[in-house]
Amino acid sequence: xxxATALLLSxxxxxxxxxxxxxxxxxxxxxxxxxxxxxxxxxxxxxFGGGADVDSLLYHxxxxxxxxxxxxxxxxxxxxxxxxxNNIGIWINVTGGDSSPSGLPAGDTLGxxxxxxHRYLTGNFADAEEPDNNTNFTADxxxxxxxxxxxxxNNPASDAIAVxxxxxxxxxxxxxxxxxxxxxxxATDTEGLGIEYAFLNSDDETTGVEWKxxxxxxxxxxxxxxxxxxxxxxxxxxxxxxxxxGNASNLDNPGTDPQWDVIADxxxxxxxxxxxxxxxxxxxxxxxxxxxxxxxxxxxxSETNNTGFTIQHAVxxxxxxxxxxxxxxxxxxxAQTYNFTAENLSAGPHRFxxxxxxxxxxxxxxxxxxxxxxxxxxIAIEQVAPNPVRQTSTVEFTLRETGSVSVGxxxxxxxxxxxxxxxxxxxxxxxxxxxxxxxxxxxxxFLRVKGDGFTKTQRITxxx
Length: 464
Known about the structure:
single chain, Immunoglobulin-like
C-alpha cells in the first residue's frame, strides 16, 4: 500500500475525466450513471466567468471492488489565458474507522513547496523570484489528498492535465499518469495504483471530472468515511468562489492563499461535506445444500450504516427474485456473521446473491453463489404444463446421476404416438421436453419418462 505521506500523482491529459459490473459507474466524464449520489450542489456564484463552473459533487462506493468514485460536474471556459489556466480541484480526507491516513489538520498550509510545477498545488511556481508564492492556502478540515484537473500549457489548450498530491516535500514521490484529452477518455496512473480519471469538458451540466480511487491507494478501508471539498481555481492558485459545498455567492473570489478555516469562522459555513461512509465490507458469502434447502452464510469484516440484506434467488438462468430479508447490525468495526435458509427448492441448480442496503438507500450487490439440489430418488419430475393443452406443453425433469433416458407419448391403448427424447442426460441439470399437441386429436395421452431403474408416467389431456 502506498502511504498517504508518499503520494504525488501527476497526469498529462489527452482525453477527459471519467468516473462497471453491477454498482460501478463508467469512467468517461459522463456523470449520468445511475450509481452516483449527489452529495452537494453550489449556490450561484460568478467564479471566473467565461463558462468556468462547478455544478455538483457526486460520489459512489463499490465495496466489492474496494473503490470510491468522486466526481464534479463542471466545465472550464474556452477563454484560456496561458499563464493562468483554470482548474477544478478536489480535497479529500479519509476519516473514522480503526485507523486512517494522517494528512494536514485544518488551518495548516496545504501548498506543496517543492521545486516542481504541479498546477495550483505548488502555487505560482512560475514566479521565479517567489517559488513558494500562493502556497499558503488552508482548509477547514483535515486534508489527506488534493487533486487538480485542467488544460495543458499549450495553445490552443485542447489537451488537459491532472494532478493528485498530498503533503510531501519529496519530488521523488511524483507518480505520473498517462496523457488524455478533454473528451472523456480515461487515463490511469503509471505505477499500478489503479487510480483512473477522465474529463469531459462541455456545456452540459451532467459532464465533468471523475476519479476512481482504490481504497488501497489512499489507505482506506470500508470502516472509514471520506470528506470532500471541490472548487474552481487557477493554475497559479487563485481561488474562485465556485465551491462545493458551502454558500460563497456573497463572497468575492477568495484569491490567493485563502484561509478556508478562517472564512468558516466568519461566515458560519462549512467548506467540506459531512463524512461519506464507505459502507459494508463483505468478507465471505457461501451456500451449501441441505436436502431440498440451501443454507446461505456470509460474514462482514465491518459495517457502516448497514440497514440489512435482501436475499435474491434465481432458478437456472432465470432472473433474480427477492425471497427474504436479514437485518444488518448498522455500524460496527467487528466481524458479523449472518445466515439464511432457502427451503423447498426444486431439483437442479439455484443461484443466490445479496443486495446490501444502507440507511440512505444506497445499495450494492454481492457476487453470485450457486448450489445444486439433487433429487431424493433417481429422478425428480415436475407436472406437465399447461394441462389440458391445445398447442404446446412442457415437462421438466432432473436426474440424480447422468444416464440414458427415453421420453415418449402414448395413447390410451398404450401405443407410442411420439418419441420426445432419446439419449443421455446430465445429472443435476434440469431437462425440458416439449409436447407439440397441435396435430394431435382431442383426448387423453400418457407421457412416460424411462431410465435405468425408474419409470415415471403423467397423464396429458389434449383439447382441440
